[in-house]
Design a protein that fits this description.
Length: 144
């Protein structure tokens, strides 16, 4: 059954989530993906404007290395800084699941919304503040 964690456990979990929001691994991966997409699209010659007919115009390696690779690096760097700052300010990791709320009375789960009360009349509780414990009084029927 679901029971509410005590204040110490809730605070410990909040500290862990706060510490995870400073982890640069996810923004770094996202910026590397952004860097690769931009660099590959520049190398194969994807046009930067849609006013010309859509024709690939690949560039040579001599043109690519000094200028376009540097531009791709700067775009990746800007993307990393912005995504890392967003992660720190919002205290949520990139690509993390939204918080799930739980009704202790009827067991209904939902993602965050403005609705604070369940249809059964009880308020929703953040599932991060709950833990599962086995019911000691429950009979196990699978024992021979």
């Amino acid at each position: 059954m679901w029971v509410k964690e005590n204040r110490k456990e809730i605070e410990k979990n909040r500290q862990i989530r706060k510490r995870e929001s400073f982890n640069p691994k996810r923004p770094l991966i996202a910026s590397l993906i952004c860097f690769l997409i931009f660099a590959i699209s520049k190398k194969i010659g994807v046009p930067s404007s849609y006013t010309t007919p859509y024709v690939l115009n690949p560039i040579s390696w001599n043109e690519f290395f000094p200028r376009e690779l540097k531009n791709a690096f700067y775009i990746g760097l800007v993307f990393f800084v912005l995504s890392y700052l967003w992660q720190i300010i919002s205290k949520q990791r990139l690509w993390s699941d939204p918080p799930i709320f739980f009704c202790p009375q009827c067991g209904k789960r939902k993602y965050f919304s403005r609705e604070q009360r369940c249809r059964c009349g009880r308020g929703f509780v953040n599932l991060d503040e709950m833990k599962w414990v086995e019911d000691k009084h429950k009979q196990h029927t699978d024992d021979p």
